[in-house]
Amino acid sequence: MSTSAAGLLAWTGSLTVTIAGLSLLGTGVLAQSRAATAADLAALAGADSLAVAHAAPCSVAGEVAARNGAQLVSCEQREWDVLVTVQVEAGPLPAMSTRARAGPGPADLP
Description:
Blueprint: H1 3-51, H2 57-67, E1 71-78, E2 81-90, E3 93-102
Antiparallel strand pairs: 1-2, 2-3
Helix pairs in contact: 1-2
């Protein structure tokens, strides 16, 4: 194998590894974004259902999380706030999870 062929092979291998790494990074960023969106929407739906006296705001939060491709890991009601943790699958990476809280502002409390 000539020196230029070995150099080309090494350069091609480096480029392939770089592209694969960027692809995994992109997968992780997208999964984290999906998790954050699902958590925000689930918390908002739970808080909204709590505001209209729904008996199970965490059930509503779980439905919204599932509709957004996430799994509700935990849900807690603290007075008028709903706190959720959701998780989404990230392909070859570990599952991504994030938390969100929603509730009325201080001026809106009953």
